[in-house]
Amino acid sequence: MKLWEPVSVRNLELNNRLVMLATHLNYCDEDGIVTDRLIEFYRERAKHGPGLIVVGGCYTEHLGMSTPTMIGISKDEHIEGLHRLTDVIHSYDVPVAAQLYHAGRYAHSIVLGEKAVSASEVKCRLTRETPRALTLDEISQTINNFGTAAKRAKDAGFDSIEVIGSAGYLINQFLAEATNKREDKYGGDFESRSRFPLEVVKCIRKSVGPEFPILYRMSGTDFVPNGLLLEDNKVLASKLVRSGVDCLNVTGGWHETRVPQITMDVPRGGYAYLAEEIAHVVDVPVVACNRINTVTLAERILKRGNVQLIGMSRGFLADPALPTKAREGHSQSVCPCIACNQGCLDRVFMIEPVTCTLNPIVGYERERKLGPPGDGRIAVVGGGAAGMECARVLRLRGFMVTLFEQGSRLGGLLGLAAKVPGRGEFAAYVCYMQRELRHLGVDVRLNAQASVDTLVEEGYDCVIVATGTIAGAPAIDGVEMSHVTSAYDAISLGLDDLGNVAIIGGGALGCYTALYLASHAKSVQIFDSDLALGVDLGRTTRWIVLRKLKEKGIRTYTNTTVTEIESKHISVLSDGILRLVKVHTVVLATKPQPNDRILKRLSGTSLRTEEVGSVKGSMNLLEVIHDAYELGNSLQL
């Protein structure tokens, strides 16, 4: 495969063309000092041999910091910890680059203790704050800080540096008319607005010398009004190379763009075209990235012959062994990134340590080692996310595991979620888990209702109940009528010709149900008593879901209570006014209830019983899988 062929970036030899991209983790202490947690995270990835690891972002000065626990490279005190990190990565014969980072107006004043800075005083959509404009002297100092940070990176043992000139950070803020209103030499026409990034690169080149490789991460298209277009960035790319850049890493737009960048609804590899277009105008290696989560897709992009490298970030979260498994011909055993963002991007924006929904070990590489070998027979009841993960971990430890699933396939509610437009990646995870359980030798019994009698007769040492939830019925007159159904059934039964649909409940379940039913009904309306819709959706996903509801013509009503359901209408109360809404079908998407019937029945037996996942209470997918891992890993008989 071309992916495993060597390639050079200036004088830096890479053993293969797979780059682990810079990943915000929030694992450092509050002064940006490298911690053991950060080192062990990268050790686990380095041992599987990507061609290059990019560490970062590493803030070049205090004003460039977006979170207090990101990696610092702004002071000489940071060098010792960074050297510890590069030594560990180098011990696996993997080169490593430091990404030099300045947030600009994307930094919060509450984090900095002062106003954020930018090219101009333009209010930031992300922070909802207005930065102050850098003075000319401050611009000069900021550029010098990039150069000094690059020298520190070299002193700390890094093999290269990468400048982040993408995602809407400070460099983008100088380049785009949207955020650069200056009237001095750093503002005005495109040539002048390009001055800042070019001077940053030249300063870095002077600091690190002629042979030290410089990478530059750039936006292919900004996807914001008055931002740079692809044709602008082609011109910029050529300028950057002439100024000393040895490799261009091309991503999508800014964090504040209204065009989805790395969420599940973005097609796999959907932004590779940006890198391929940039590659046509430069003679240095170019990295393609964004929603590339399989080596098959990576190989297909490389074979088109335009780009030389493939970048992944979240793929290395979901499965650090991705390179090893792929090289050894076991690509199907790679746990796929499903772009849910619950453990990674959502947590970054909440200034919390990153983990992974599907891989509970991320961020806990030291603590969450596989538990001691187990001996005994365990029944897991329920083949949803919790049941599959618990069965997997228990079998890895050596227990004999039987998994009972009353349906015809594994996955539980993930199977329903995968039917919603733009949520198909859930099916990839279910397929992966099916293969893993089969490979591990878990006795999977489909179409098998686990009765108490069966569990007692087969003599299990422990029964783990992972039966999840069932649809909840709100206390509304008329919920028992024939034209009322649950969100679960509305999706699973593939109901058609539903006429005018009223969905009661505007959380994630109601929103996703509405998107699914939009093509199965004459009209869809959502009613919720809360003040906002989708409050249980992740920050990086919610705005996309709400926009899609609007695009599909789905009418939404908040602060509205459904008081009664009748044969041809519902009664709704809003702002003290009661009105009737004509409907043909009513779908209940209110809070689900724990499916704990077998749990209660087992309490009357001598069988040891444990419960896991959302049968214990409300949990999102991350919480369900992490809870299942913890139980499977700690269970002792």
Architecture overview:
This protein is of the alpha/beta class and 637 residues long. The protein has 3 domains: 2-349, TIM Barrel (Alpha-Beta Barrel); 377-470 and 594-634, NAD(P)-binding Rossmann-like Domain (Rossmann fold, 3-Layer(aba) Sandwich), CATH 3.40.50.720; 484-591, FAD/NAD(P)-binding domain. The strands form 7 sheets. The protein has an 8-stranded parallel β-barrel, surrounded by 6 helices. Helix 14 links the parallel strand 14 (377-381) and strand 15 (400-404). Helix 4 packs parallel to helix 7 (195-208) and helix 19 (508-517) packs parallel to helix 20.
Index terms:
637 residues, alpha/beta, TIM Barrel, Rossmann fold, FAD/NAD(P)-binding domain, 8-stranded parallel barrel, 5-stranded parallel β-sheet, 22 helices, 28 strands, 32% helix, globular
